Amino acid sequence: MKQILLIATMLLTFGVSQAQTKYYSRQEALDAVKKDGYELEYVYESLKNDREVVLEAVKENGSALKYADESLRKDREFVLEAVKANGYALKYADESFRKDREVVLEAVKTNAGSSLEYVDASFKKDREIVLEAVKNDGQALEYADESFRKDREIVLEAVKEYGRALEYADASLKKDREVVLEAVKEEGEGSALEYADASFKKDREVVLEAVKANGLALEYADESLKKDREVVLEALKEDQYSLSYADESLKKDIAIEAYLNNSSVEFSSEDQKILDVATKELEPLYNKLKGKLLSPDEVLSLDLSNYELTEIPALLGSFWNLKSLNLSGNSITYLPEELGQLKQLEKLYLTGNKISNLATIAKLLPNTNIIGGN
Q: Cα 96 vs. chain centroid, distance in angstroms?
């Protein structure tokens, strides 16, 4: 019975091994690993010892070295070639190479500076190696000796390459204006502003640089700057979803202005019900609203104050459900009678304008509280 089980196990193992092999010819293997280094796992066993095949796999994905024949992983000449092609190959090379200074230096010189994670502890204290590592991959600062987190030159090089490396810097350097500015300017996922000293989250210049590089950095700005129209608009230009981090008082006011400047911006229907239009042309507003945002008749409040308007087009009468219309601070002298269609209008603000046909408008809107205009 034991013999039968042993034979069955051997057959099963052999069968699985055979089933996994997808590339038997050298050319097939080369073509496959050039596209995906991990395909080295599925090449014929003898080809896992082929220097060219393995090197092509490593070029595409440093981690592919784990599927290479053990003899290549112990071959210093080959490992040097491999880490020059992709520093991450060091992780799967024979452990003896983690103590080999030349191999380590070549590994961190690639854009895989984070291969510093796999080197001998002595090299994590080696300034030359650490500096090379962070220049090529700022995140390598995470794996450097603690002492380098206070080293201004090393931290500065790290954040220039990867802004969020600021997370690993000493608290004293998170208060360094130059370091923080370099960090937030670097584009990428997330924002280094998250890790900056709290004082910089209130610093308008720093926050502006941060949101220009990554709109979502607005999340980490001080509440006072989430109310700053320019800051929020810059954030929106870079990422439409940053609107969710703007102060509630500004969200509704800024929606149409941002939409007119960037047609990719999307807003919830609630945000669109109260609009502040920073434009001197109402036609673009109407066209944008029509079929793209809420229809004009769904807008409840419209603020067109202080935009140097001299006239109001008749199409404003299409905003049938308006309850509040603010035209204060303009130079309007005549209002189109189509405004009489705004039967739901409760308040009409005209302060600062001298409306010649104010009496006519008052008759057309008997239930509207008209403020100013004479």
A: 39
% pLDDT > 90, the chain: 46
In what side-by-side order are the strands of the sheet with 347-349? 274-276, 301-303, 324-326, 347-349, 369-371
Give tens-digit pLDDT for 42-53: 998 989 999 899
110 touches 83 (CB < 8 A) = yes
The percentage of the chain sitting over the pLDDT mark of 70, rounded to a whole number, equals 81
Write out the two tokens for 359.
């009496």
Q: Which residues pair with 274 in a beta bridge?
A: 301
Q: Which residues pair with 11 in a beta bridge?
A: none
Give pLDDT, residue 299.
74
* φ, ψ (nearest 5 deg) of residue 66: -65, -20
Positive or negative torsion for Cα 68, 69, 74, 77: negative
SS3 348: strand
d(CA 373, CA 348): 9
- Element (DSSP H or E) covering residue 349: strand 347-349
SS3 127: helix
Contacts of 16 (CB under 8 A, 6+ apart): none
Domain boundaries, the chain: 247-374
Can you name the CATH fold of 247-374?
3.80.10
Q: Contact at 8 Å (CB) between 179 and 173?
A: yes
Bigger pLDDT: 356 vs 295: 356
C-alpha separations of 181 from 132, 134, 193, 207, 216 in Å: 22, 17, 9, 9, 16
Distances in Å between the Cα of 154 and the Cα atoms of 166, 224, 364 are 11, 33, 72
